[in-house]
Each structure stands twice: as structure tokens, then as C-alpha cells.
Amino acid sequence: MKKFIVTVNGKKYDVEVEEVKDIAGEEKSPEETATKNNEVKTSAKSTPVEVKNEVKDGSAINAPMPGTILDVKVSQGQAVKKGDVLLILEAMKMENEITSPYDGTVISINVSKGASVNTGDVLLYVK
């Protein structure tokens, strides 16, 4: 174990870091371990993953920030107008209305109440 003192926002913390051992029991530096892991990841076969609710002929409405879906205000097949509230997204204890950028019809909803989303996640599709 190696000990370090790390300063975060002006506070000092004592931190212990454990060295990772290779399968053969040899000690590796963090850089060597990261390189070895990257080699394993890149050499592994990639398998295609099926995307749920993929819609090709609609426009995606993406999450502008990470948060939790508090409410879904629309349903699939519902007509919406520019400015209509589609979802309520809670981020940092603030409720944010996600509105439609244009007139159209909701063709797919990819989230549900209580779901956690990240910036850029597709929330729904409007056509």
C-alpha cells in the first residue's frame, strides 16, 4: 500500500492506494495495469447490441443534463405543438420542463417516471 495526501476543495485527506498484482503475481504500476486492461478491451470481440425503441424517421429529444425523470406528460401517438411540456426532469433539486422544439407526434418514449438519465440520452422521438 502507498499512502498519499490528497487535497480536495481545500481539505486534506489521507489516502491509501493498493498496487494491483498481475495473474502471475507480479506487481504492476497503475500505468501498466491500465495499458494491459486497454489491450484486453481492444482485443475482445465486440458484439452488436440491440437498441431499444430505435426510430429512424423521427427527431430525437435528448436530455440536456443528467437527472431523474419526475413525470412523463405525453403518451405515444399524442400530437404536440412547439413549446408543449413533454417531460419533467429533476436535476440538482430543480424541476426542469423538457419542451417540444416543434410541432409533431410523439412516436416513441424511451424513459419512464423515476428513470435516471445522462446528458445526451434519448428521452423520446417526435415526428
Walk me through what this model shows.
The strands form 4 sheets. Strands 5-12-10-7 form a 4-stranded antiparallel β-sheet, with no helix packed on it. Helices cover 11% and strands 44% of the residues. The chain has 1 helix and 12 strands; from the N terminus they run E-E-E-E-H-E-E-E-E-E-E-E-E. With 127 residues, it is mainly beta. 10% of the residues are buried. The longest helix has 14 residues, at 30-43.
Helices and strands in order:
Blueprint lengths: L1 E7 L2 E7 L2 E2 L5 E2 L1 H14 L15 E4 L4 E6 L6 E2 L4 E7 L2 E6 L4 E6 L6 E2 L4 E5 L1
Antiparallel strand pairs: 1-2, 3-4, 5-12, 6-8, 6-11, 7-10, 8-9, 10-12
Short structural summary:
With 127 residues, this protein is mostly beta strands.
